[in-house]
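Hi support team,

I submitted a single chain yesterday and got back a structure, but I'm not sure I'm reading the token output correctly. Could someone confirm the output below corresponds to the sequence I sent? I've pasted both exactly as they appear in my results page.

Thanks,
R.
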Amino acid sequence: MSLRRQQLLATMESDTQRFNLKREVGIIGAVSFIAGTMIGSGIFISPQYVLSAIGSPGASFVIWTCCGILSMLGGLCYAELGTVIPESGAEYIYMLRTAGKVVAFMFVFSFIIVMRPASATGIALSIAEYVVAPFYNGCTPPQLVVKLVAAGAIIVLAIVNCLSVRLATAIQVVSMAIKLLALTVIILGGVVMLFKGHTENFENSFEETNVNVSSIGIAFYQCLWSYDGWNTLNCLTEELKHPHVNLPRAVVIAISLVTGLYLLVNVSYLTVMTPKELMSSSAVAVTWGNKVLGSWGWIMSVAAALSAFGSLNGTFFSGGRVCFVAAREGHMPDILAMAHVHRLTPSPALIFTTVVSLLVLIPGDFQSIVNFFSFTAWFFYAITLSGLLYLKIKKPELPRSYRVPIVLPIVVLMAAIFLVLAPIIDNPQIEYLYVTLFILSGAIVYIPFIHYKLCPGLLTKLTVFLQLFLEVAPAEKNL
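Hi R., thanks for writing in. Yes, this is the structure output for that exact sequence:
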């Protein structure tokens, strides 16, 4: 190694005693990250899939309400976990502290290879669908065009998150305002139509409901996709100002807001469109806009794309932090636990998650991505909530600034178990077996690469090269 490189590395290492991510996210940013990540592509795309799965408008409203309640209960349980274990990383760090290293690695392995890329890819595809929709009016846009636009969105937001925490937060706040404006327009349009007497779609609203277990499970999967992001703030606890106060407060404000908006928007959709029109639409908000706004319908396409853009931004922000924390704990290569020496962003972790997301984008389609993402996510939510029950029963002496009744994690845990088992019991598909085997394969990968640290010399040389190339250094915990 040259003398210059040695000096640069020594300078970087000498700064690590005071080098960490800064607490720059206040209560407004916190609410924007949760609500802004939740309100993304889902509410503009998922309603038709929920209705198709469950079969009737009345039952779809029940599903949307239950998912909102479930997200709130899950968020409150995670708020307690975030105050007991005040570290970034969400499920990963909670599993590491309660279930052990192997289970935590199985999660982060699945999270980085399947869950986060699937989430980012699904949102990016929805952005692309809305961006290209006005250019292919009346016909299906080519998949190559859609995927190129989706890839562009992923790359742009990866660059933004690598450049600045403040810029990423500002985008989240601005996109949150756009989302609220778009949803308000939809809600007001529905109210006007209701006052004009368009209530025919709500008659016999529970007729033709699908009551089999598989249909209910798939409806929950598609609906919970719209609520995904309720745990976003737990991924960046170390960058949150006054987390013991702002974490539970932001959860209650954001999830209550989102649930109310989602129910009102669904009322508006079904006021304007018949159930058949809703189920056959490829972009519900655009169909609604064309029927209500006429020649101005393209505005809804733009608003939906910008909304999903903000959700993708939040997904990148939180996902990069989980990868960063896992590397800091020794479960990923050391380079991913480093942050830029000037910008204080975990750029290596963000770059890595971006590359994986682009790879997943190549074969991906929206509906299958949502189903497999939800299956994997709720499998690990169940393990995380079991950890909370363990801490409440076995470690009651740990300091907690916020507590939930023990019945809440029990209820959410039972719901999580149902969501994992429902699609398999009633209508087993080989794909769910593949996903399960992939999750379990994390334990096999752990033994040679993490426990025995296979090929350490090669990784050390690569780490040194990338550290110098990317101008990054190890970051301490910010507790």
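A quick pointer for reading it: The first strand starts at residue 338 and ends at 340. Let us know if anything else looks off.

Best,
Support desk
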